[in-house]
Q: What sequence folds into this?
């Protein structure tokens, strides 16, 4: 039986001329008379061939939807992390690609090769299909890549120069902070996240140019490391990066969850874990935290800053439209509480108010 199904595709069946005489007369199998019973011996091998032909390519191929690079993560080293799942490599920005990536299985324990310039590092993915590796900092431009050694295929590649060490950390949420997602309206959330193309996704008005100014060196605060912190799964990373590029947001580090179920359903778990990790990696650097009022960003940011008396340039929260009356009490209470600790807490509703908030914090804007 194993020899009969070794070729996992119906196209690999022997030609008619090579079959013995008895088989030649009955290939393809005759259509049974009405009411006749199909023989299991005839159907089973064909079914196995079809099923194996459908499953085998997906099981063999690997796809890398997300890689993040954190420069100067520790003295003299840069952190490179990523996520790999099973399935044929795909651009990731089409609707079908996003849905397929969401349903894909992590490539647990698969071997990959991380290349940084001429150096190669053989890695084994963990149970979630993730890898994490610290490499020495480099000078000039280096070619970074992730390779599937089994298929001899490049899964991801990037040309990169290391930026100078950051003076502060600019950490921004994505959904409803800079990208219109309507997270609190579940049907609209699905439509915006899965059904709209990258070209159709809307930026929150005023955010692209102001974020570009923030990413440039500030006379008062220096140069930031821009971090986009999202609870979206890694399957959405290429779509988000396409949105950033199309809308003109500054390049930064995109941090997502590995899968929909990673870190549970509470956004505070994932975001607080990463805020603490960033604080440990860049000790003493102040944070500029940007989020929205739709979910828990105000509370997550406030609790994080207060728990370790961490330096903070300010917390800036976008008021999600239609929730003003619902959010007023909690936002006012947070502003009062943080003011007592000397932490600016500013809420904005339109681009002019965002600009005013940044000027209040000492950022020079044109």
A:
């Amino acid at each position: 039986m194993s020899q009969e199904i070794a070729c996992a595709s119906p196209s690999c069946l022997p030609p008619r001329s090579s079959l013995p005489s008895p088989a030649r007369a009955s290939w393809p199998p005759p259509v049974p008379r009405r009411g006749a019973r199909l023989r299991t011996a005839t159907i089973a091998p064909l079914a196995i061939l079809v099923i194996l032909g459908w499953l085998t390519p997906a099981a063999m191929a690997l796809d890398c939807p997300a890689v993040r690079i954190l420069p100067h993560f520790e003295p003299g080293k840069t952190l490179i992390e990523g996520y790999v799942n099973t399935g044929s490599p795909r651009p990731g920005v089409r609707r079908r690609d996003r849905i397929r990536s969401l349903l894909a299985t992590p490539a647990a324990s698969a071997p990959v090769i991380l290349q940084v310039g001429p150096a190669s590092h053989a890695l084994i993915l963990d149970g979630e299909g993730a890898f994490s590796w610290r490499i020495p900092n480099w000078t000039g431009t280096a070619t970074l890549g992730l390779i599937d050694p089994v298929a001899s295929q490049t899964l991801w590649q990037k040309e990169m120069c290391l930026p100078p060490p950051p003076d502060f950390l600019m950490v921004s949420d994505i959904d409803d902070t800079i990208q219109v997602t309507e997270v609190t309206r579940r049907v609209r959330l699905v439509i915006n996240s899965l059904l709209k193309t990258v070209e159709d996704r809307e930026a929150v008005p005023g955010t692209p140019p102001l974020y570009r100014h923030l990413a440039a060196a500030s006379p008062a605060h220096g140069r930031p490391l821009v971090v986009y912190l999202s609870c979206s799964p890694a399957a959405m990373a290429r779509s988000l990066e396409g949105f950033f590029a199309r809308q003109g947001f500054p390049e930064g580090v995109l941090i997502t969850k590995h899968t929909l179920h990673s870190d549970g359903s509470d956004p505070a778990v994932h975001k607080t874990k990463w805020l603490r990790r960033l604080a440990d990696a860049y000790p003493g650097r102040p944070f500029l935290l940007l989020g929205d009022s739709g979910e828990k960003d105000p509370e997550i940011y406030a609790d994080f800053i207060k728990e370790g008396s961490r330096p903070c340039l300010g917390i800036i929260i976008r008021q999600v439209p239609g929730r003003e009356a619902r959010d007023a009490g909690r936002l006012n209470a947070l502003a009062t509480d943080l003011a007592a600790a000397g932490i600016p807490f500013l809420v904005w509703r339109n681009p002019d108010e965002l600009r005013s908030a940044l000027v209040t914090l000492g950022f020079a804007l044109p």
Notes: The first helix runs from residue 21 to 25. The domain at 60-161 is CATH 2.60.40.10 (Immunoglobulin-like). Confidence is low (pLDDT under 50) at residues 1-29, 34-59.
